[in-house]
From TrEMBL:
Coiled coil: none annotated. Hydrolyzes indole-3-acetamide (IAM) into indole-3-acetic acid (IAA). It comes from Bradyrhizobium jicamae. InterPro entries: Amidase, Amidase_CS, Amidase_dom, AS_sf. This is Indoleacetamide hydrolase. Belongs to the amidase family. Residues 29-451 form the Amidase domain. Gene3D superfamilies: Amidase signature (AS) domain. It holds the Pfam family Amidase. It comes from the Bacteria.
Amino acid sequence: MTDLSSDLHWAPGWQIREAIMTRRVSATEVATRFIERIEALDRGLHAFFTLSADVALGQARAIDRRIDRGEPVGALAGVPVSIKDQFWTKGIRTTSGSHIYADHVPEEDSLHVARVKAADGLIIGKTATPEFGTFWRTAGRVAPECVNPWDSRRTSGGSSGGAAASVAAGFGPLALGSDSGGSIRLPSAMCGVLGVLPSNGRVPNHGSFGSTLFLSRVGPISRDVRDAGTLLQLLARPSVDDPLCRLDEPPDYLSGLDDGIAGLRLGWWEDQSISGQVDAAVITAIKKAACGLSSLGANFVDDAVTFDTQGVDEAWRVLDFVDRYAELGESLYTDPLARRKLTPYARERFAWAKRVSGAEYSRAVRRRAEFIRSFEAAFRSCDLVLSPTLGFTAPVIESVGPTQRIPTLVAYTLAVNLAGFAAASIPCGFVGGMPIGLQVIAPPNQEALVLRAARAFEQAWPWVERKPAI
């Protein structure tokens, strides 16, 4: 058990809950300690748009009273959980990183926030996101750019950059993020934490700004695999509010967490078409980490995994940009007053989506279907496919433009969203003092297998021992 008296902010959520249940610490003390840490240290990171101190303390006091009376409490009782600011939070400002919604306070919770509250998780605050989650840096007009806890000159990634930075900085053990092309996994890799992408439809979508039909997923970011599995278990139940979600109950993500990976067939995917645009030292380090899994009893297949990615970036771009435009962008872009308030990158994206034809959208849907078949073929000989999460460390902010899109950045993540598969970015080391991430990919509805692999890696090579000096 972590020494909670001195190291509370680095303890996993499940340990915090155990300490609260055994009265070693109160939920109110937990909330107070995390609020104080965020107030003291986040002014240099900008991981949070809004700190919901009063809400978290009110929840904590109610949990303490229920425990004192011997009443049951939820799976996250007293555990601080940060919420990406794209998700609605009743009574708490929700901006989605947009100046247009700078003072917006929803009258209802998103489905995901409601489930966190039902499990007695403490809503500690709203983490930073680029406008409507449409950029790979967490920069916009609501607050200063969220920077990387390991090096403030560098980006924290996007669009769940605030979520990943908050976990990496010890501002809370769990964060709720979203991902349509890498927005959970890329910030997690850049900030040295675990980010889980559920497969398409496994977690319902309801109650957020800027989701898409085929690509958007909601998942946990954490430092601990068990914490991630606990939150995913709550999120993954079906809901009538999302007509596209799976209707079957999710498997038990925690019962087999320690079963190991002995006998699993692993494939290695390395996109040779971008070899000149990535850092060879990063790829080598990630591959070395991946190969270490063979020492845990897993077996690598003889042939490297390859995917036909021709036209995949364009198909993803059409589906993502147009769906966001249809859901939200059209009403804003066609309003001259609102359009002037948009960030340059959001305005540019909506303008591009407006010009896409129905025929182009239809071709993108077909290319997605073809690509799903190619992904399925690779898993006939593999249980899991491993790859880099991205081929370089977090870029220095001043080295990239304010609207610049970098296809190489999302080369390994975007394809998984398009195929609808499950994945996670696992912290697997450092290059030049910056974190790097190993991506583990599994077929749809095999999130338990992804978590098992992450847990095996976590036990063999613990990643929480190094912490950023903030």
